[in-house]
């Protein structure tokens, strides 16, 4: 059997001694590394601050530039827009905390003011368009990405704002605390294809649903959730259901 | 694919219909009470603003029963082939009466309403303002002088019931006196105490 450092008490002492030395060396090394990292971080931070300050207006106004900036920050694990106010220096340096809050307020404004006609579910494009209309021209345009980010910052408020993917890259924003089941998501997707109109026949033809399933999904959306409106004068002769948030509005 | 885009539209009478008027389900009475409240509010606003635009005072259930009346432009939408059904209109009229945006006229029936696109209080102010600006304070006017004045006024064509309500409002603050004249009722407008 091989014994490390020989045999006996002396060997044991020797082993302990070398372990201590290794630990000391390791401590010194990591301390140096940490210091180096700190220096780098400080350097990086001031560079980022300088960059952000110089380009603040452009970040606020130009959606393409903002997107590039956010991508750059994300790739190095920094979120310039996260935690405004408490984030401290970011919010102050960039003024982007306010920017994000402001956008959040505008999103809430649009969602609440259109809620009565769409039941608290708004199509992403429509939301972006209406928020854009609320904003002063000089503030520049906003993108879907900005809205999604802003909705994330609204999450701690517990207001239930959520981005829902209804398939094929199309998104809707839900502003009421309501669980959408899988069938309702399908109905929403079809309504978007059809300019807002859905019917039992359509769900049966497109998805092969049983009549009962189609009826239940539509009745729930109509009576329980208030997400769609009934049309009894549809040309088909049977009731049609309209999801107002999926209709094409020009106001 | 192309869809009907719901856009505002100007009618032949020059009224700007809001885009919601092109939404097919607006013409159906909704089973969900919250949704129906929204629908009722849309119709109430439509009816009152159209009435103001055309100076219409009376809406009847019959107006929804057959085409060919003053209300065709809003009670129907030929482009999407929808119309407001009489039963739905009865419901909307009841809601308007409950919210003091109309009154049943005549009373004790539910098929015809007098529309308050101006409330009696607002009519009272318009009436007093007209009498004042045309130098007719302290003169005795018959109701007929007001309803059909020689020079058209903001009061021209006001229904008798509404005129009477407006005068009653003014009488309460001593700005009008109802007077019996040879051929019926008359009214004298007074400067009144502006401080009330």
From TrEMBL, chain A:
<dbReference type="InterPro" id="IPR040608">
    <property type="entry name" value="Snf8/Vps36"/>
</dbReference>
<comment type="similarity">
    <text>Belongs to the SNF8 family.</text>
</comment>
<dbReference type="GO" id="GO:0043328">
    <property type="term" value="P:protein transport to vacuole involved in ubiquitin-dependent protein catabolic process via the multivesicular body sorting pathway"/>
</dbReference>
<dbReference type="Pfam" id="PF04157">
    <property type="entry name" value="EAP30"/>
</dbReference>
<protein>
    <recommendedName>
        <fullName>Vacuolar-sorting protein SNF8</fullName>
    </recommendedName>
</protein>
<dbReference type="InterPro" id="IPR036390">
    <property type="entry name" value="WH_DNA-bd_sf"/>
</dbReference>
<dbReference type="InterPro" id="IPR016689">
    <property type="entry name" value="ESCRT-2_cplx_Snf8"/>
</dbReference>
<dbReference type="GO" id="GO:0000814">
    <property type="term" value="C:ESCRT II complex"/>
</dbReference>
<dbReference type="InterPro" id="IPR036388">
    <property type="entry name" value="WH-like_DNA-bd_sf"/>
</dbReference>
Automatic annotation (TrEMBL), chain B:
<comment type="similarity">
    <text>Belongs to the VPS25 family.</text>
</comment>
<protein>
    <recommendedName>
        <fullName>ESCRT-II complex vps25 subunit</fullName>
    </recommendedName>
</protein>
<dbReference type="GO" id="GO:0000814">
    <property type="term" value="C:ESCRT II complex"/>
</dbReference>
<dbReference type="GO" id="GO:0042803">
    <property type="term" value="F:protein homodimerization activity"/>
</dbReference>
<dbReference type="InterPro" id="IPR036390">
    <property type="entry name" value="WH_DNA-bd_sf"/>
</dbReference>
<dbReference type="InterPro" id="IPR036388">
    <property type="entry name" value="WH-like_DNA-bd_sf"/>
</dbReference>
<dbReference type="InterPro" id="IPR008570">
    <property type="entry name" value="ESCRT-II_cplx_Vps25-sub"/>
</dbReference>
<dbReference type="Pfam" id="PF05871">
    <property type="entry name" value="ESCRT-II"/>
</dbReference>
<dbReference type="InterPro" id="IPR014041">
    <property type="entry name" value="ESCRT-II_cplx_Vps25-sub_N"/>
</dbReference>
<keyword id="KW-0653">Protein transport</keyword>
<dbReference type="GO" id="GO:0043328">
    <property type="term" value="P:protein transport to vacuole involved in ubiquitin-dependent protein catabolic process via the multivesicular body sorting pathway"/>
</dbReference>
<keyword id="KW-0813">Transport</keyword>
<dbReference type="GO" id="GO:0005198">
    <property type="term" value="F:structural molecule activity"/>
</dbReference>
């Amino acid at each position: 059997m091989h014994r490390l450092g020989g045999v006996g008490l002396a060997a044991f002492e020797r082993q302990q001694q070398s372990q201590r030395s290794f630990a000391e060396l390791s401590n010194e090394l990591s301390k140096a590394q940490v210091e180096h990292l700190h220096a780098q971080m400080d350097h990086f931070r001031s560079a980022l601050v300088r960059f952000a300050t110089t380009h603040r207006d452009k970040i606020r106004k130009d959606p393409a530039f903002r997107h590039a900036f956010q991508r750059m920050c994300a790739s190095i694990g920094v979120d310039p827009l996260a935690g405004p106010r408490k984030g401290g220096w970011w919010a102050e340096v960039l003024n982007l905390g306010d920017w994000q809050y402001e956008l959040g307020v505008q999103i809430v404004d649009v969602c609440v003011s259109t809620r009565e006609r769409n039941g608290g579910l708004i199509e992403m494009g429509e939301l972006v368009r209406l928020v854009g209309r609320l904003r002063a021209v000089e503030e520049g345009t906003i993108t879907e990405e900005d809205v999604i980010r802003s909705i994330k910052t609204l999450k701690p408020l517990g207001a239930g704002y959520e981005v829902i993917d209804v398939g094929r890259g199309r998104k809707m924003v839900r502003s009421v605390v309501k669980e959408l089941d899988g069938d309702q998501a399908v109905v929403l997707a079809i309504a978007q294809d059809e300019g807002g109109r859905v019917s039992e026949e359509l769900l049966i033809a497109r998805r092969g649903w049983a009549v009962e399933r189609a009826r239940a999904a539509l009745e729930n959306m109509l009576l329980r959730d208030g997400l769609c409106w009934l049309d009894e004068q549809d040309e088909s002769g049977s009731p049609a259901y309209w999801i107002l948030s999926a209709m094409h509005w020009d106001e | 694919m192309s869809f009907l885009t719901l856009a505002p539209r100007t009618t032949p009478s020059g009224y700007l219909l809001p885009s919601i008027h092109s939404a097919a389900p607006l013409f159906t009475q909704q089973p969900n009470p919250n949704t129906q409240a929204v629908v009722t509010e849309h119709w109430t606003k439509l009816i009152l603003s159209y009435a103001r635009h055309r100076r219409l005072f009376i809406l009847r259930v019959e107006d929804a029963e057959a085409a060919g009346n003053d209300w065709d432009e809003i009670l129907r939408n030929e482009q999407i082939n929808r119309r407001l059904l009489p039963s739905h209109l009865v419901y909307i009229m009841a809601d308007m009466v409950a919210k003091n945006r109309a009154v049943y006229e005549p009373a004790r029936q539910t098929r015809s309403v007098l529309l308050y696109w101006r409330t009696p209080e607002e009519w009272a102010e318009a009436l007093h303002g007209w009498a004042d600006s045309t130098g007719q304070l302290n003169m005795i006017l018959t109701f007929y002088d007001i309803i059909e004045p020689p020079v058209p006024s903001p009061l021209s064509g006001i229904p008798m019931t509404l005129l009477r309500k407006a005068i009653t409002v003014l009488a309460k603050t001593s700005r009008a006196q109802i007077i019996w004249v040879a051929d019926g009722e008359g009214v004298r407008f007074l400067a009144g105490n502006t401080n009330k």
